[in-house]
UniProtKB/TrEMBL annotation:
GO terms for molecular function: purine-nucleoside phosphorylase activity; uridine phosphorylase activity. GO terms for cellular component: cytosol. InterPro entries: DeoD-type, Nucleoside_phosphorylase_d, Nucleoside_phosphorylase_sf. NCBIfam families: deoD, PRK05819.1. Its EC number is 2.4.2.1. The record marks R219 as: Important for catalytic activity. This is Purine nucleoside phosphorylase DeoD-type. Residues 17-220 form the Nucleoside phosphorylase domain. The active site is at D206. The gene is deoD. GO terms for biological process: purine nucleoside catabolic process. Belongs to the PNP/UDP phosphorylase family.
Length: 233
């Protein structure tokens, strides 16, 4: 069967899935955290794998960058493959002084400058949020494992390079927004539409106020810690 973007057959993909943006991160997770992982998709180099974690069937699928790319993969996973639980695992830039490099940001909700929901809802400002049960469990596990984590609203940006970034980021931080990514708002919106559960967890790899950046080793170590929390959920 498959879709234009995924060659998996029905049943190849588990009801629980991790969604890194980078397909090579999907490959890394499958090879280092899952047992008996099998690649079910390589269309356009967007790798997807299914394996087991502690005996439970789990999939991991790259989604690419930005809300339009998330829209394609999440829609197909929800509508065609009937996935029920989604955990986006990625990196982010911190917008606040009290959100540090290597922290894990658990996204309670997502603000955006994208027009995708304006196109859907017109004058209504829809506010997409995480699954409370997934969010609560993620925070509890992070605390148990002593992984530094905060729960916050985040900003899903349509642009990586934004001429007005400094002004926007300062305003958003003043309203408590912790970090910026490029996919979460669409994932949460689609989860609401399809009545499934979704959560975003992000490791802080860059600090947009101070200019600090994680080293490659720090980025990988903190990302691995987050993956362990995500899989335990």
């Amino acid at each position: 069967m498959g879709t234009p973007h995924n060659r998996a057959e029905i049943g190849d993909i588990a009801e629980k899935i991790l969604l890194p943006g980078d397909p090579l991160r999907a490959k890394f997770i499958a090879e280092n955290f899952l047992e008996n992982a099998v690649c079910y998709n390589d269309v356009r180099g967007m790798f997807g794998y299914t394996g087991t974690y502690k005996g439970e069937k789990v999939s991991v699928q790259g989604t690419g960058m930005g809300m339009p790319s998330m829209h394609i993969y999440a829609n197909e996973l929800m509508e065609v493959y009937k996935v029920k639980k989604f955990i986006r695992v990625g990196t982010c830039g911190s917008l606040r002084e009290d959100v540090y490099l290597k922290d894990v940001v658990i996204a309670m909700g997502s603000t955006t400058d994208s027009n995708m929901n304006k196109d859907r809802f017109g004058s209504i400002s829809f506010a997409p949020t995480a699954s409370f049960s997934l969010l609560k469990r993620a925070y509890e596990i992070a605390m148990e494992k002593k992984v530094p984590a905060i729960v916050s609203n985040i900003f899903t940006s349509d642009k990586f390079y934004d001429d007005n970034a400094q002004q926007k980021n300062s305003l958003l931080a003043s309203y408590g927004i912790a970090a910026v990514d490029m996919e979460t708002c669409e994932l949460y919106t689609l989860a609401a539409k399809h009545h499934v559960e979704a959560l975003t967890m992000l490791t802080v790899s860059d600090h947009l106020l101070t200019g600090e950046k994680c080293t490659a080793q720090e980025r990988q170590t903190s990302f691995n810690d987050m993956i362990k929390v995500a899989l335990e959920i």
